[in-house]
């Protein structure tokens, strides 16, 4: 652990998102929690932090990253401190949180991206669980079946994506639920970006999803983040496949 702490000084860097938001504005958005900014601890990939980073950028938040390299992770000291033995972890003041979807929900609550009432919150949970199902299929392809399963995965993809297409087409706001962005939108958006790398034409027959990706990509803070080196330098997945 001592070596982990010592080295973490070198690994710690800010994603330098200061141009995204003045801290004062972030304080107003989170009166109860009183900044400091969030700290994300994770590996040098987008992986399970892709959606939360996009969300933080869009919400005008500053955050720090502790980047863990694989060799140090394998020593096991940090792993032993993780509730489920895995990353990502987010630190928000004295709250230390694991599980990427719990983190998204927490950020959703903090930043008003969890619907306008309980009914919308329940629908957002449902949609996010649907995104998680897709994310797990994608992860299985990437980490277990890339060479043998890619063709079939791409064949099956329209049937999975069409479920999200129907929901967005029905909800005239362009978002998954209600009339404002939610954490589930960020998660869906990020997973769709990854799928467009896997299969660039995958949204061609899905106009509502295509418009959704265009709308999310054009949000100024998201656009600035996606254009940044901090975002571009990270591979999508830990094994280099995409
Ligand atoms: N359900 C967890 C999954 C976390 C997970 O799979 N973490 C991987 C990296 S993406 C990890 O820590 N792998 C290292 C290990 O298991 O030792 C979440 O959503 O956060």
From TrEMBL:
GO terms for molecular function: glutathione transferase activity. InterPro entries: Glutathione-S-Trfase_C-like, Glutathione-S-Trfase_C_sf, Glutathione_S-Trfase, Glutathione_S-Trfase_N, GST_C, GST_pi, GST_superfamily, Thioredoxin-like_sf. Residues 117-236 form the GST C-terminal domain. It catalyses: RX + glutathione = an S-substituted glutathione + a halide anion + H(+). Its EC number is 2.5.1.18. It is found in: Cytoplasm; Mitochondrion; Nucleus. Pfam families: GST_C_3, GST_N. One of its GO terms (cellular component) is nucleus. The keyword Transferase applies. SUPFAM superfamilies: GST C-terminal domain-like, Thioredoxin-like. One of its GO terms (biological process) is glutathione metabolic process. Keywords: Cytoplasm, Mitochondrion, Nucleus, Transferase. Conjugation of reduced glutathione to a wide number of exogenous and endogenous hydrophobic electrophiles. Belongs to the GST superfamily. Pi family. Homodimer. This is Glutathione S-transferase. The lineage of its organism: Eukaryota, Metazoa, Chordata, Craniata, Vertebrata.
